[in-house]
Amino acid sequence: MAALLRFEHVDAGYGNVRILEDLSFEAEYGQILGVIGPNGCGKTTMFNACIGHITPTSGHILFDGKDISKFSPAKRVHMGIGRTYQVPRPFENMSVFENVLVSAVHGAGHTERQGARIAEEALGITGLTEKAELIAGSLTLLDRKRLEIARALGTEPKLLLLDEVAAGLIETEIKDIMKLVADLKSKRGLTIVWIEHVIETMVGATDALMCISEGHELLIGDPRAVMDSREVEEVYLGASDEEVNAA
Ligand SMILES: Nc1ncnc2c1ncn2[C@@H]1O[C@H](COP(=O)(O)OP(=O)(O)O)[C@@H](O)[C@H]1O
Ligand SMILES: [Mg+2]
Description:
Elements: E1 3-14, E2 17-28, E3 32-36, H1 43-51, E4 58-63, E5 66-67, H2 73-79, E6 81-83, H3 96-107, H4 112-126, H5 141-153, E7 159-163, H6 171-186, E8 191-195, H7 199-205, E9 208-213, E10 216-221, H8 223-227, H9 230-246
Parallel strand pairs: 3-8, 3-9, 6-7, 7-8
Antiparallel strand pairs: 1-2, 1-4, 4-5, 9-10
């Protein structure tokens, strides 16, 4: 079986509003699949469908060959799907270590002892070991992004969904995050779906790239080819025209 995650003709949205329209794609085992697309095209909504915060009204989502379309978020986390949020949501008054521990124990159902081992490991790979005792609310944006990834690792995912972890960072910090994501693939063997707006980052850091437009996959393939395509250029030009008109 080639794909760890597979969307088959998925329609999904909020209430009666359909956001994802006939969305189909797959992420292969061990691959980093980048996801781009204009604001509001449904990238985060696709993650909400992966983790089970919303349920498809038609189509199927397969994880490791199983149809998980109707599974609860908790079940999906147990099966091995971990995600970060576009706006990091740490428990501000808890320490960095406690934040990851909570995710391992309450998110993934590990014992305190297992959870502590997993948390230490997650802090190690994300470069937060020396900041383990700091209060999460005191971290810089880069470290908050690292913590967001560490918390997702706390549930020991096979599939990691990254939602704009590089957004808001300066160039050297983006390089740190890129290195971290590359390590998660090469050293942990994780399959990663990575939504990002820092477009050039996505060319060098991904194995395949998908551009979503209006809830549907516009193009999927070689990152450079997708980025340089006329279709993607038009979708982004269209978006900036709207923004210009709205201003
Ligand atoms: N919880 C929600 N309830 C209703 N509409 C939402 C919700 N979240 C997002 N939307 C709408 O869904 C569309 C897609 O949003 P989103 O998936 O967040 O876009 P992206 O991540 O690609 O910028 C937008 O029009 C947005 O306003
Ligand atoms: Mg988003």
